[in-house]
Backbone:
DNA sequence: GAGAAATCTTGCATGGCATGCAATTATTGA
DNA sequence: TCAATAATTGCATGCCATGCAAGATTTCTC
């Protein structure tokens, strides 16, 4: 994720490049073998063999087999995006700005196209191996906590006020739902994702609004 | 959970009573030892020893060590409660009826007092051992899917309409938040829990409502 | 109650996950 | 080129989890 933004390929020595390659090879092998045979029928030993490293080396890159499968998304939102949000930007509208943070966390800086294939694979993984779902939920939960802090800072609530946690929890629920329902078509843009999110937030607001029902 | 409601103590033979006792002993031992020493420093062997059964027997009761720790809550809502909800009851107000289903899922039929201690222990477990959080989230996720189906039935939406999923996801997020923030004081009643839930739903509605902001 | 049937417990063996440690190998920088 | 730094590897270990078959216990039937 930092390979293109912060480091030019030149500033990366041979050692660093090899590490990135090994990491990607391990991830790719883990996902591919799991989709082929099912999680139970893939051993760390086999994954390592596919990536041409020793089984022991696998655990220098990933703490668990699950880690190699789930990847790095969603990640904590970009530091710059977070700062802007905390200071009340970029538009001033709470939901719109929330959506900016959420898309940044989901898609990172490289754009949707770069993640499309990875997202598709992860989706198929979840369907084929439901045992992975709790781990994925845990990752969203980590982002949720980060988001909760950002919301608290932006709104200036006192630390014991638990409403930012509530808003963060529901916002991440909306995000998970949106990711699950994304069609991931070729032409889909970030703006499309934003629109789906906006519509989902509106629907939630209507469902629980005190005025209706 | 069914011991008091469906089965009188008399209808349960010796075998069944022993099984329940062993199950509870294993759960109790697992939780106590984990809170004392931390999850990494408790083996299945030790848990089984505390419950006076062989290590092998542990796995006749629980598929994993985590299973013994997390227990049975939240469970899928009671069948009767679900039926009433699907048919548009008990009050006809969506949020109120949703709250009825959610509290039924959290607290089961024995009332809050019976669960108070167990909930407290589980809360301390989550704080002490964050590795357990994904597993707990997974359990909420299972209830979420059940709830999603119930909402779809109640509202009569078509199967491909994904809004029931969205509502279920956010409702469970509200529920998780509420459980986390419950004070679990001695005098707290189910009505108090309902009130906290209602207030949380209202706040979510306001945060995402199209009218405000 | 005695014996047969069903069910639960246990021991044993197995395979895979994950970690620590020390030796080896590869990259970097002077 | 040589020393310093960092990554890879093999080995040993402990624990989790499962399958299987033998033994013990409860239940059912007469």
Residues:
């Amino acid at each position: 994720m930092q390979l293109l933004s912060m480091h030019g390929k030149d500033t990366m020595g041979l050692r660093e490049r090899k590490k990135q390659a090994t990491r990607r090879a391990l991830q790719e092998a883990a996902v591919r073998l799991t989709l082929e045979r099912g999680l139970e029928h893939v051993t760390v030993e086999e994954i390592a063999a596919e990536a041409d490293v020793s089984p022991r080396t696998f655990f220098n890159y990933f703490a668990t087999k699950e880690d190699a499968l789930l990847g790095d998304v969603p990640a904590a939102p970009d530091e710059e995006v977070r700062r802007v949000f905390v200071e009340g930007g970029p538009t001033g509208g709470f939901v719109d700005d929330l959506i900016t943070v959420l898309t940044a966390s989901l898609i990172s800086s490289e754009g949707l196209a770069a993640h499309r294939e990875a997202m598709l694979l992860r989706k198929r993984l979840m369907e084929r191996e439901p045992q992975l779902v709790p781990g994925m939920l845990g990752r969203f939960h980590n982002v949720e906590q980060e988001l909760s802090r950002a919301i608290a800072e932006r709104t200036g609530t006192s630390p014991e006020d638990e409403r930012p946690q509530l808003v963060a929890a529901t916002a991440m629920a909306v995000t998970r739902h949106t990711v699950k329902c994304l069609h991931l078509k070729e032409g889909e843009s970030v703006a499309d994702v934003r629109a789906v999110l906006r519509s989902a937030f509106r629907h939630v607001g209507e469902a629980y609004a005190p005025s209706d029902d």
